[in-house]
User: What shape does this take?
Amino acid sequence: MAETAVGLFEHPGTADAVMDALRANGIPSNGIRTVSKPADMSVESATSTPSVDFAARLAQDLRSMGATERECEAYLAGVRRGNVLVFVTGSLPQVEAATTVMNSYEPIELEGFASAMPAAVGVHGKEIEVHDGISLNSDQARAKTEGARVFSW
Assistant: This one.
């Protein structure tokens, strides 16, 4: 079973420092990746929009790792705001070490971040509002989402 640690960081410089620290702690470079909002998003087809395509791919990746819908929405909103996701995939000991490193750099706590997202007026339950091509879920149910998270898939 694959394990992935995910942390959301406020600034690209912090994400770079996290990646350096991960490598310094023995995490192989091929197990580390970052995701940020692309500066230039090309159109993939006549019916696509770059921001929707980007959001759909990222949400699919997160769901395949086991992220809940609420977590996906919070991560997508964070990336839309200019935050950076850092992923580490590897063995359980590697991702546990990665989580410790990530948490030492104070990743954004999704629980607080998700509660700060604006609620969609007139939207109930699991209905979705789309903002800048990335949907925001107004569902108020929250999973435990403190600091970096580990997903098993």
